[in-house]
From TrEMBL:
The chain crosses the membrane at residues 27-46, 52-70, 102-123, 130-153, 178-199, 229-254, 266-291, 298-317. The keyword Isomerase does not apply. It comes from the Bacteria. The keyword Cell membrane applies. It is a multi-pass membrane protein. It comes from Bradyrhizobium barranii. Keywords: Cell membrane, Membrane, Transmembrane, Transmembrane helix. Its main location: membrane. InterPro entries: ABC_transp_permease, LivM-like. This is Branched-chain amino acid ABC transporter permease.
Length: 339
C-alpha cells in the first residue's frame, strides 16, 4: 500500500465506523419502537386507538416514501398515490383470484409495482420540475380511470367486494385484529428502517447532490437519470406497502385509494411534518389523521379548517413542524456554544 492509499484509508476509517455506529443505533431505535407499539394492546383495550395506529402505518409508509422523492431528490410528485392504490388493488386481486399465501401475494405485489414504476419512472424522471409533477399526475389519473372502467375485474366504482381472504401463515392470523395490528406495526418499522438506511447511504447523499445541483452531479460522473429512476422505483415499493396495509385493514380496495386526492394528502402530510427531517412525514401523518378525526366530529366544513392549518404552516412557520423544532434546537445549541 502506498503512503497515499494508507492516508486515505486512515481518513475513511472514522467515517465508516461512524456510519456503522449510526446504523446500529437506528436498528436499536427501531426495535425499541416496535416493542412499544406491539405492547400497546397490553395496556389498552381501545380498538379505536389500535385502528388509528394501523392507519398511521399505512399512510406513514406512503408519506415517508414520497419524501424520498420530494425531500431527498427534489422531485415533487403529484401522482405518487397511484402506487398506494396499485399496492392495495394488486394485493387484493391476487388474494381473491389466486388464493395464494399472504407472503407470496405480498412479494408478487411488490414485483408488479416495481415493473410498473420502472416503466412510468423511465418516462417521468427525464422531465424537470412542474412537468415531472404533472406527468406523474396524468399517470395516476390513467390508473384511476382504468380501475373505474374495468369493472368486471376491479369492481369499478364499488371497489373490490367480498373482502380479502386472510389465510393463516406461520401461525399469524391477520383476520385477528391484534395480529393485524402487530403485523402493521412490523411493516411500518421495517419500512421506515429500510428508508432510513437508504437516506443515510452513499446513494442517499447522491440524491441530495442531485437535489441541490443536478448539473454539477452529472459533471462529476453521476448517472442522474438512473439515480432518479432507482429512487422513483424504491419510493413506489414503499408506497405499495402502505397500500397493502390499508387493503388488509379495510379488507378491500376502493378507487379513492388511487385518486389524485391521495397524492394531495401525501404532499399535505409532508408540509405538516417537514421534509428536512426523516421522521417529519410520520409526524405529519399523525397530525393529519388527528385533525381529520377531531374536526369531523364537530363540523362538516373540515376542508376549511384544514385550509387554515395549511396557511398557518405555509405562511406562519414556513416549514413543517418537525423541521421547525429541529431548527429551534439548532439555534439554541449554537447560541449556547457562542456564549
Amino acid at each position: 500500500m502506498t503512503e497515499l492509499e494508507a492516508g486515505r484509508a486512515e481518513t475513511l476509517a472514522p467515517v465508516r465506523s461512524g456510519a456503522a455506529l449510526q446504523r446500529y443505533r437506528d436498528v436499536l431505535i427501531a426495535l425499541v419502537a416496535f416493542a412499544v407499539l406491539a405492547s400497546l394492546p397490553l395496556f389498552t383495550g381501545s380498538k379505536a386507538l389500535l385502528d388509528f395506529v394501523i392507519r398511521c402505518s399505512a399512510y406513514g409508509l406512503f408519506a415517508t416514501s414520497l419524501n424520498l422523492l420530494v425531500g431527498y431528490t427534489g422531485l415533487t410528485s403529484f401522482g405518487h398515490g397511484m402506487f398506494f392504490g396499485l399496492g392495495a388493488y394488486s394485493f387484493g386481486l391476487i388474494m381473491q383470484k389466486l388464493g395464494v399465501p399472504i407472503p407470496v401475494a405480498f412479494v408478487a405485489t411488490l414485483a408488479i409495482t416495481a415493473v410498473i414504476a420502472a416503466v412510468i419512472g423511465a418516462i417521468c424522471v427525464r422531465l424537470k420540475d412542474i412537468y415531472f409533477a404533472f406527468v406523474t399526475l396524468a399517470f395516476q389519473m390513467l390508473i384511476h380511470s382504468t380501475i373505474l372502467s374495468w369493472a368486471s375485474f376491479t369492481g369499478g366504482d364499488q371497489g373490490l367486494r367480498g373482502g380479502i381472504p386472510r389465510p393463516t401463515f406461520l401461525g399469524i392470523n391477520l383476520a385477528n385484529h391484534i395480529h393485524l395490528y402487530v403485523a402493521s406495526c412490523a411493516l411500518l418499522i421495517l419500512g421506515l428502517l429500510a428508508m432510513r438506511q437508504i437516506a443515510q447511504s452513499p446513494f442517499g447523499y447522491t440524491l441530495r447532490m442531485i437535489r441541490d445541483n443536478a448539473a454539477r452531479a452529472s459533471f462529476l460522473g453521476i448517472d442522474v437519470w438512473r439515480a432518479k429512476l432507482t429512487v422513483f422505483v424504491l419510493a413506489a415499493l414503499f408506497a405499495s406497502m402502505g397500500g397493502m396495509v390499508m387493503a388488509l385493514f379495510v379488507s378491500g380496495a376502493y378507487p379513492e385509494f388511487a385518486y389524485w386526492t391521495i397524492s394531495g394528502e401525501g404532499i399535505f402530510i409532508n408540509m405538516l411534518g417537514g421534509v428536512s427531517t426523516f421522521l417529519g412525514p410520520m409526524v405529519g401523518t399523525v397530525l393529519l389523521l388527528l385533525l381529520n378525526d377531531t374536526v369531523t366530529r364537530f363540523t362538516e366544513y373540515h376542508g376549511i379548517v384544514l385550509g387554515v392549518v395549511i396557511l398557518f404552516f405555509a405562511l406562519g412557520l414556513r416549514k413543517g413542524l418537525l423541521d421547525f423544532v429541529a431548527d429551534w434546537f439548532a439555534h439554541r445549541r449554537d447560541a449556547g456554544e457562542g456564549r
